[in-house]
Amino acid sequence: MTSSIFRLTWNSIRLKLVLGLLLITLPTVAFLIYNNDYAIRVVHNQVAESSRSLISLYMAQIDNDLNDVDKYLTNLIVNDKDLQELEYRNTEQDRILAKVRLDNKMKGDITTFQSIDSLFVYSTHGQDYLEVFQDMGNLNEREMARTYIRDLLRDLQHTGEFNIRTWYVKPIGSSYYLFRVLKTSDAYVGAWVNIENLSIPLSLLNLGERGLSLFAMEDGTPMTHADVVWENGIELDDNPQRYYLSGETQHFLVVGGKSVKGDFSLIALIPDEQILENLPYLRRIATMIPAVAFILVPACLLLLRKMVLRPLNRIMAAMKRIGEGNLNTRIDPFPTSNEFRLVNETFNQMIKQVQELRINVYEEQLSKQKAELQHLQLQLNPHFFLNSLNIIYNLALVKNYALIQEMALSLVHYFRYMFQSNLTFVPLKNELQHVRNYIRIQELRFPGKLNFELSVPDFLLETRIPPLIVQTFVENSIKHAATVSSLIQSAVRIDMDESRPEPRLLIEIRDTGKGFAEEILVQIRAGKRIEDEQGEHIGIWNVKRRLGLLYGDETFISFSNAKPSGAIVEIRLPLNPET
Fold it and tell me: Which of 214, 336, 516, 569 keeps 20 to 30 A from 555, CA to CA?
């Protein structure tokens, strides 16, 4: 007994779930990974914000220096008389004296702008080119810059277009230069600086032992320290306002800021190892977590799958098959926990009971539907029966025995077809023969006043349809349209409707009578029984009800009026009804 209880205890799903939860360390692993990642992101964010503040400070200083140069060049254009004399000189002597004074002025002024390497002026009248330099620099660099400026000014004079609005970057040789050019009516003034010289003050930026700062173009091309960028595979984004990690051989935190004066950016590169060197404990945990999780998590998942997931999958698969309509599905016995065993046995028993109940309900519905169909099919129009007897009586008065015999035979065929109560579907040809027989009876009632046309392809004659579908609407047409004083035309057209992927049978009944009254059409489309001044008309409701019972939503019937007069009824039925 004790052994049995022990086995039951250890076979309990609750105990298995407890053991599984104790072994599953995913929450702990996820927390440690998140905690480590969060700490790293916090450090990255703090370092990035600090570095961005430094970068913004130095970028603002550089922009201020460039802005001072812009103000100086603008003032030179507007207020300097010597530059104006170069443009509008009276004598050669005045031009030379103005040139000397302007050159001396620029030599004195450039010392106040430590951020630039050269100032230059070019007068288009005398083609005078003046330039002054800081003490630093070499002759080769000056010559390359001078050549570029002369070529630029020549192109500007030749094209007559001047679209330079800010400081812009130009690579010359192996270096990058920052140029600024302003234009008056007959002169150009400007300044330039080597990017390497512009970055000298950046050495004061405290980016750590291995961090560095550099200038980059708008497209992310590095202009300084390009060797570090290429060697480490660092991608410089064209939007330096955000910070991110980049690098192949070594990760760097990339932080930058754009210049408001030119098309360049100042970017700081800080090695990730340097940022995280104060987090050794978290880094060791981050290294160990994947290895532990790689071993522990699969083992826990396998255990959970065997104890819980596989039995649940069996139950879910069985429920899915039952949802698809397969009530013969059962869960086969298999070794599992006591709880799942009880669930499986109860499930199988419940499905068996549901299956039996469904069969009983289905059989009861079939019986009820069959009884309703038989009742609908047996509903007779007493007026037709009385009118037929009246016709025979009148024929007997005139002793027209041949027509009496024909009328009696037609009525025999008519009522024999009407009383086929055990048939849910009949061939189309039988229904049409019944329609012809009914038309003949009406021709005897309205001699010379009834014209009937029937059009149907031969290949559709064996199609099975519910009985009295066509005859009901033909009878309705003649009943409401035929008179002893006017000719009525009634037509039945049957064809294949291929407007949908599944072809359907199209039945159209027309007449030339008054058509449907508007209030009658409203009642028909609302699915109500039709009642007018002549009393209740059950024929149309009868047909719609039977079609609904037999076909459900797969049938279509419409009612409308023809122009200038007459009624139209269209019926579309599936070609292959489920008998």
Answer: 516
